[in-house]
Structure to design on (120 residues):
C-alpha cells in the first residue's frame, strides 16, 4: 500500500499490517474488534525499526470503562464522522435492529466484503 507516512495513530479495523507503514516512528496502532479470527501479520522489522505502540480496543471494554455521558458523546462523534466520510464506507448490508441476529450472522460470514450496518 503506497501512502504518505507520518500519522501519529492508525485505527486498524481490517486485518492489514501494512497500516504500520502509515505511522510515524513511535506512533500508535489501535486494533479494534474481534470479528475476524485471523492473526494480524507483523514483520519484526516493522516493530523494531519504527517502535510503534500497539493497543487493542473492544466495545465491551469501552462500555465497561466509559461513563454513559462519554459513550453518548463518542457515539455522536462516530456518527458525524461516518456521515462526513460516507464515501469511504462500503456497506455490505443494512439491517434493522429487529434483525440483529441476521446482521451478526452476515458480519461473521467468511469472505464478507464491506461493513454490515444496523439501524434503529
Amino acid at each position: 500500500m503506497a501512502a504518505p507516512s507520518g500519522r501519529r495513530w492508525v485505527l486498524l479495523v481490517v486485518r492489514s499490517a501494512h497500516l504500520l507503514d502509515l505511522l510515524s516512528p513511535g506512533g500508535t496502532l489501535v486494533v479494534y474488534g474481534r470479528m475476524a479470527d485471523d492473526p494480524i501479520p507483523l514483520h519484526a522489522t516493522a516493530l523494531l525499526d519504527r517502535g510503534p505502540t500497539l493497543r487493542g480496543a473492544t466495545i465491551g471494554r469501552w462500555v465497561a470503562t466509559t461513563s454513559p455521558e462519554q459513550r453518548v458523546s463518542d457515539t455522536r462523534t462516530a456518527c458525524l464522522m461516518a456521515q462526513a466520510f460516507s464515501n469511504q464506507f462500503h456497506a455490505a448490508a443494512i439491517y434493522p435492529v429487529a434483525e440483529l441476529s441476521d446482521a451478526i450472522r452476515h458480519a461473521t460470514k467468511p469472505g464478507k466484503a464491506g461493513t454490515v450496518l444496523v439501524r434503529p
